[in-house]
Amino acid sequence: MSSSRATDSMVGKQNAEVALSLVGYDDELKSAMEHVFGSTFICRTRNDAEKSERGFELD
Predict the structure, then answer these.
(1) Which helix (H) or strand (E) holds 14?
(2) Nearest to 49 by CA among 7, 5, 21
(3) Per-domain residue ranges for the chain?
(4) Quick one: which of 11, 21, 28, 50 has the most CB atoms within 10 Å?
(5) Which residues contact 53 (CB under 8 A, 6 or more apart)?
């Protein structure tokens, strides 16, 4: 299961967004932006962030 779908199932799609979808950038920066923001989520509340964190093993 992808981390995006896992987060959706834990906190609801309306409560977490992939950070990359929330920032604007030029096409030439796509690779760099995916590297920086690719696995980052922005959650609506701290509680949602804590719920989603529990579902993943952190490095």
Answers:
(1) none
(2) 7
(3) 3-54
(4) 11
(5) none
CA gap 10, 6 in Å, rounded: 6
Cβ contact 7:19 at 8 Å: no
CA distance linking residue 15 with residue 58, whole number of Å: 20
d(CA 27, CA 31): 9
pLDDT digits (tens, 9 = 90+) for 4-55: 555 545 566 677 888 898 999 999 999 999 999 988 888 888 888 888 766 6
* Residue closest to 9 by CA, chosen among 39, 54, 57, 58: 54
In angstroms, the Cα distances linking 33 to 13, 42, 47 are: 22, 15, 27
